[in-house]
Amino acid sequence: MKIEEFLRAYENHPVLFVGTGISLRYLRNSYTWDGLLKKISADLYSNNEKYLDIKYSCRLSTGYDYAKVAEIIENDFNNVVSQPENREGKFKSVNDMFYESMAKGIPINRFKYYLTTLLKDDKFDDNKQNEIDEFKKVRKNIACVITTNYDELIENVFEFTPLIGNDILLSNPYGSVYKIHGSISDSDNIIISSKDYEHFSRKYELIRAQLLSLFIHNPIIFLGYNVGDDNIKDLLSTIFSYVEPNSPEAEKIRSNFLLVEYEKD
Predict the structure, then answer these.
(1) How far separated are the first and last CA of the chain, in Å rounded?
(2) At 259, which helix (H) or strand (E)?
(3) How far is Cα 221 from Cα 206, in angstroms, rounded to an integer?
(4) Which of 25, 163, 210, 223 has the highest count of CB atoms within 10 angstroms of its CB?
(5) Integer Cα distance of 118 and 91 in angstroms
(6) Would you say 233 and 60 are in contact if contact means Cβ atoms under 8 Å apart?
(7) Distance separating alpha carbons of residues 165 and 155, to the nearest angstrom
(8) Do 165 and 197 meet the contact criterion of CB atoms below 8 Å apart?
(9) 3-class SS at 17?
C-alpha cells in the first residue's frame, strides 16, 4: 500500500511517529540504542569487552534488555566519573557542568548529560540534502510528530514546537513534536534506563491518554522503526491496555496505523 492510498480514507491530518532510522539516515552523527550505549561504554571502560559482558547479563529470549543495560552503565558511569581521580581528564567537561549546575541548585545526571554531548552535533548529511528538502514539504500536511528520538532533527526540519514531559499536557498538539523519551535540550528528562521507564509509566498517565486520543482520531504513520522495535511494542502494549483487544475501538486504532519500512534502493 502507498501512503497516498492509506490517507485517502481519512479527513484528519496524519501524525508522524518517527524513530531512530530517520536520524540515522539524515544526521551525520546518530546512533541506535545499542550503538549509543556501546559508545558510552567504550569511552568509560576504554574497551568494548565490558559492554559485551553487560549485554550478556541482560540477554532475553528474543534479544537484549537495553533499558537494563543502560541502567548498569549509568550507575557505573556516575560512580566512576564522580571519583576525585577522574575530576580532570576526558570527563572534565562533564564534571564542570555537574558542579556548575549543582552550585546553582540544579541537579543533573552526569551519564545523561554526557549522552547529550554525543548527540549535540546534529548536522545534516550533505549527501541527503535533496531528500531533506522533500521531507520538509511534509510539514503542511501533518498534524504533529511523536518521536522517541533525543536529537533535534524533527523540530529543525519542520520548525515545530518541541514538547517534553508535562509540557505535552499543556500545549496544542498541532504543529508540535511530542518528545516522549526526552530531548538533548534537557538531559534530566531523558528516558533510557529501566528506572526511567518505570518512572514514566507511573508519572505520565495523562500523557499516554493524550496519545491514545491521537491514535483514535488520526492516521498514524510510523517512520524509522521496524516491526520488532522495542519502543513500538512497549508503547502499543500500553495503549492497548486501555481498550479491549477485540473491541471496535481496538480495531479502529489498528486500522489507523501504517508502518513504513526501509528497503535498500
Answers:
(1) 18
(2) strand 257-260
(3) 22
(4) 163
(5) 12
(6) no
(7) 16
(8) no
(9) strand
Q: What is the DSSP string of 119-184?
A: H---PBPGGGHHHHHHHHGGGGG-SEEEE---SSHHHHHH-PEEEETTHHHHS-STTEEEETT-BT
- What's the CA gap between 125 and 23, in Å, rounded? 10
Average pLDDT over residues 82-92: 94
Q: What is the pLDDT of residue 109?
A: 97
Is the pLDDT score of 57 beyond 70?
yes
The pLDDT assigned to 170 comes to 65
Nearest by Cα to 110 from 86, 141, 81: 81
Across the chain, mean pLDDT equals: 89
Instruction: Choose between 230 and 15: higher pLDDT.
Output: 15
Residue 209 has pLDDT above 80, yes or no: no
More confident residue, 238 or 213: 213
Contact 225, 214 (CB under 8 A): no
Task: Work out the average pLDDT over 123-152.
Answer: 92
Using a 10 angstrom Cβ sphere, with 0-12 exposed, 13-18 middle and 19 or more buried, the burial of residue 107 is: exposed
pLDDT value for 59: 96
User: CA dist 66 to 39, 63, 205, 262, Å?
Assistant: 14, 9, 23, 23
Cell matching residue 250 = 481496538
Strand pairing report for 161-164 and 59-60: unpaired
The radius of gyration of the chain from alpha carbons, rounded to an integer in Å, stands at 19
Question: What's the full length of the chain, in residues?
Answer: 265
Query: Under 8 Å CB-to-CB from 44, ≥6 apart: which residues?
Result: 73, 76, 77, 80, 81
SS3 223: strand
